[in-house]
Amino acid sequence: MKKNIIFLLLLLLNITIVFASNTLEVGIPTCTPMIFDMDDDGVNEIIISVVDPTGASKRINFIELNGEEFNDEIKQLIIPEGTVLNNINYYVDAEKKYLLFGGNKDGTSKCKIFSYTTTGDFNWEKEYNFQYLKAPIADYETEQIYVSLMKPGAGADGGEMSVLDYSGNEVWSKSYTSGISSNAVIEDINVDGEKELIYHTNDGLLEVLDSTFSPLKGFPKKLPRNPSDSFYDFAVKDINGNRYKEIIVSSGFTSYQYFFVFDYKGNKIGEIRVNQKCRDIPEVYDFDNDGTKEVIITSVDGKIFVKDLKGKDVSPWPVQAGSGEMLDSGGNKIRKIVGNPVLLDTDGDGKPEIIVVALDQTEHKLKVYDLKGNIVDDSISLGLLNNAPTAKFYSIADLDMDTNLDLVFIDSSGSGELKVEHIEAPNKTIINEVHRTIEYK
């Protein structure tokens, strides 16, 4: 049955839309911009969920490029109920692309997961008696969709991991007494040719399930935690260079954070303590060329740490990337570092730099550090990003497909302006985004 969601084509008037100045008023973002060629015309589009300042209108914007200018027509998918959080994803079924996103129903403890064509036609929806914080994840190899669910509100408990096929039918689910606010990660960690489903519950249960949804030997693991704090997203990386992947999961306490590192057998091979609160997914790199990668961690007070698996600092880290104190309209502190650290070779020397978006007194800036902790560039300003902890509100991609990378973000210091800045990266580079490796030439 056709749902009451209207696909509109609106013409924006009296707005300067020039790629050089990189501005387009879009509203208040609720998720990180997604960038991909959704209509197969050889040009990427920007897909972003926004609300108007009153919160009354919720919509997904599809923004196209015309050469190096934003197109002055914005296609909009109007969302009648619920707010899209975290990310909008897509999947391909029978060579046709579909948008995949969730919507938390306002004033209830329910949510819906939606599938739409890239032209705005309804495909299917799935309703749950839960809400979500992390976007549903689609995996092209398993051809399944993974949904992390939790009960909303302080003191609420209970959660579920649900797995759907590409038609929206549930093929497996598991309920928990605690919520699941972490992302689901789909990776072949034991190199058996089949991917595992990895996630953790808010009360510290780390699950690793095989393709039959049975626990891998050595799992689940029960992690210590402060009951008044939450678990956060985690990383799955090959730390030892042997193709087997390790899981780096953090556990928050009153004034510090632990990062536990487990191999594919469930053995704890690393324990890292950071004497600051940490929220974002760590990255890894072999700083000392000994064959074992160190862990790059950012903290809420604006520091970048580099630590070995025993928790020892790699000199000269940490460095202070974020500075200044600001409050948002709700009285919350503006984040000093937004999003996970990114590795990118910006100068073509064959070694990556560490990129973070950090508060610089009164604005967020893209800050680039070499492996020795020296800042090499901080010339790109992002204004102020949305302070909600549910997304990072910027993306790095080759937006106009000119082989150069672009920084796409929404400056929320005013009415919500979409902006683009070019990033110089002269050689073939690799960006490790959250559980997804995107290669550029």
Q: What is the CATH architecture annotation of the domain at 191-201 and 212-320?
A: Beta Barrel
Terminal CA distance: 44 Å
CATH class of the domain at 191-201 and 212-320: Mainly Beta
Query: Residue-averaged pLDDT, rounded?
Result: 83
Strand content is over 45%
Total of helices: 0
Question: How would the global form be characterised?
Answer: globular
Specify the helix fraction band. under 10%
Q: Main beta sheet, described? A: 6 strands, antiparallel
- Which structural category fits the helices and strands? mainly beta
CATH fold description of the domain at 191-201 and 212-320: Lipocalin
Radius of gyration: 21 Å
Low-confidence stretches: 1-22, 427-441
Subcellular location: Membrane
Organism: Muiribacterium halophilum
Protein name: VCBS repeat-containing protein
Membrane topology: Single-pass membrane protein
How would you characterize this protein structure?
By secondary structure, the protein is mainly beta. Among the domains are: 191-201 and 212-320, Lipocalin; 323-427, no CATH class. It is 0% helix and 46% strand. It has strands at 7-11, 24-25, 28-29, 34-36, 45-51, 58-66, 69-79, 89-93, 96-104, 111-117, 122-128, 137-139, 144-150, 159-165, 170-176, 185-187, 196-200, 205-209, 221-222, 235-237, 246-252, 257-262, 268-274, 283-285, 294-298, 303-307, 319-320, 337-344, 353-360, 363-369, 375-381, 394-397, 405-411, 417-423, 429-433, 436-440. Strands 1, 3, 4, 5, 6 and 7 form a six-stranded antiparallel beta sheet that branches. 41% of the residues are buried.
